Amino acid sequence: MMVLLTETMGDGNYSMVSEIVLLGLTSSLEIHLVLVLVFSMFYMAGILGNLLVVLTVISDSHLHFPMYFLLANLSFIDMWVSSITVPKMISDLFKERKVISFQGCITQMFFIHVIGGTEMVLLTAMALDRYIAICRPLHYLIIMNFRTCVLLLMGAWTIGIMHSLIQTVFVANLPFCGPNEVDSFYCDLPRFIKLACTVTYRLEFMVTANSGFISLGTFCILIISYVFILVTVWQHSSDGLSKALSTLSAHIIVVILFFGPCIFVYSWPFLTVPVDKFLAIFDVIITPFLNPVIYTFRNKDMKMAIRRIFSQMLSFPKLL
Predict the structure, then answer these.
(1) Which of 196, 187, 189, 193 is nearest to 212 (CA)?
(2) DSSP code of 271?
(3) How big is the chain by its Cα radius of gyration, in Å?
(4) Which of 162, 228, 283, 306 is the most buried (most CB within 10 A)?
């Protein structure tokens, strides 16, 4: 049943939605039990994997370089990517009626886009880091010093917050009088705006321009930058091309995994189809799980640092 609050405004009355009903992924109880197990495993593995990357970079002095500073921050962001939506999604699988308060829905959308916008800029900063490391290795530590890394990180969070605020402020002020059902497992702008009791085509265009075009534009910039790096390396040394490919391959995989679902969902966000929900699962569960796997198992320095940490942990009881 739709829950409404009735308020008085001037001489008339209007009704405002007080909660949002999430239809979730499926109504099958058997599938729910499987999803709880699978999602819980991926979520915990993703959190632990990203936490391991962050702690490894902080504790191992051999990794105190710009590349690993940015990587640790990517892992920190990935922990939030999952935590904003996945715990509630898992708990809702046990409930017949899945609801979230109107304010909670707005808050969830705000943080989803803060984290998403920040990660887009951070991935661009990581591409810049690889360009300087490969194309200007002698000047790498001069250009990518600690101050530069902090400024890049501050810029990423600032852009992420602004990107989210621009959309959330307008959406929060829309009139919502019912219906209040969202065909998803979390709140997000395309489906949420459709619930507004007003014409929203201008706002829909703004969201498409803000989220969709930014996702697509950033993705194109990153791919072009990687191509430019590879061409530059190939022109200087054909032997260095394989090394550059090895270095960049992890970044390219992460970029495709992150931007693929975002581009599909937000470039044409108001032609919502059921596949949107499953692409969202990929973005909030699978990608945060795969990022530490990709960076850890493909990076020799990271693997050595993790071995050193585990060796120290195993030898610590012997010292007591």
Answers:
(1) 189
(2) S
(3) 22
(4) 283
**Predicted pLDDT at 12:** 39
Q: What is the pLDDT of residues 267-318, one digit of tens each?
A: 665 555 566 777 788 888 888 888 888 877 777 888 888 888 888 777 755 5
Number of H helices, E strands in the chain: 12, 5
Cβ within 8 Å of residue 289, ≥6 positions away: 42, 43, 45, 46, 49
Return d(Cα 55, Cα 44) in angstroms, integer: 16
Q: Is 16 exposed, middle or buried (0-12, 13-18, 19+ CB in 10 A)?
A: middle
The sign of the dihedral angle between the CA atoms of 155, 159, 165, 170 is positive
Could you tell me if residue 175 is left (phi over 0), alpha (psi between -120 and 50 degrees) or otherwise beta?
beta
Q: Are 90 and 36 in contact (CB under 8 A)?
A: yes
User: Which tokens go with 43?
Assistant: 């979520």
